[in-house]
Amino acid sequence: MTTATGASNPGRVEHGRIEVVHPDMVGKAAVVTGAARGMGAVFAAGLAARGVDVLGADINDEQMTATAAQINADLAGVEKPGRVVAARVDVTSADEHEALAQRAVAEFGRLDFWINNAGIFPFAEAQDISPEQISAVLDVNVEGVLFGAQAAARHMRPGGAIVNMSSVSAVRVRRGRGAYCTSKAAVAHLTESLAVELGDKGIRVNSIAPGYIDTEMTRWVQEDPAALAHALEVVPLHRLGSPEEVLGPLLFLLSDSARYVTGHSIAVDGGSRHV
Ligand SMILES: NC(=O)c1ccc[n+]([C@@H]2O[C@H](COP(=O)([O-])OP(=O)(O)OC[C@H]3O[C@@H](n4cnc5c(N)ncnc54)[C@H](O)[C@@H]3O)[C@@H](O)[C@H]2O)c1
């Protein structure tokens, strides 16, 4: 997890902790996919710090195990934290999602929240997107969300909430990211379809559409002076965002504060969807 702050940070990312509490979430249980690093790791840590038990799952099980151990160690001074349990999942597998949901119920006795966060971000100009690349992106970014939501809905009780990670790329074209943009537009639409149908079960489904967030996925922006200068120029808030700044809206969407919010997408992009 990145902890850089302040003026010395060339990407001008604000990593300060967001002080928000949701007492209604204490004692609940969540699954977060893609939780070994990046936003997923911050979501797992942020939920556990607020008393939510988390099954953190990733295809990189070694890193997932290390991340869970680090989060649990960091929570030592926190009053009544949740715990983070590590699991392996390949989100392209419906069966592995079902096993994940069953494991969450076995570990925690309940399942309240599911965050479909795992994603991949390959590059290719539209003319060069290979059959393998488009299949891989749709498998992970779209089918992964569908299978996760299906498994969650089978095991959640009414009042459950699912959040899918979409992107500003769902509504803005980014050169070289045609496959990714297409997948995230599909996630935004799939979220609305799921919200309409899972409303029958009392389950809410929303998405978050981040812009440039400081994770390994966007490290190339910080490492390419021209790309970074462009990002800082065009993003209306003139800086990149931090995973912590996505955690805040995630907590809102999962919490009782959003209990009449479903089928919605929250943009967390410093305004970049407008430029
Ligand atoms: N970082 C950004 O600026 C940004 C912007 C918009 C949307 N997003 C989306 O937010 C989500 C998280 O992004 P991030 O920046 O934290 O990414 P990241 O690359 O840092 O982390 C993604 C995690 O997903 C895991 N993963 C990949 N394929 C998997 C699979 N098949 N099964 C299980 N786990 C798998 C990876 O191992 C990794 O731990 C992604 O869906 C991404 O598309 C990110």
TrEMBL record:
In the record, the note on similarity to other proteins reads: Belongs to the short-chain dehydrogenases/reductases (SDR) family.
Q: Which domain of life is it from?
A: Bacteria
Instruction: Enumerate the GO terms in the molecular function aspect.
Output: oxidoreductase activity
Name the record gives this protein: SDR family NAD(P)-dependent oxidoreductase
- The chain positions of domain Ketoreductase read 28-211
Q: Which InterPro entries match?
A: KR_dom, NAD(P)-bd_dom_sf, Sc_DH/Rdtase_CS, SDR_fam
Record's keyword terms, sorted: Oxidoreductase
- Which species? Nocardia jiangxiensis
Q: Which CDD domains match?
A: SDR_c
**Which SMART domains does this one have?**
PKS_KR
Write the Enzyme Commission number(s) for this entry. 1.1.1.-
Give the enzyme's main class according to its UniProt record, as a single word: oxidoreductase
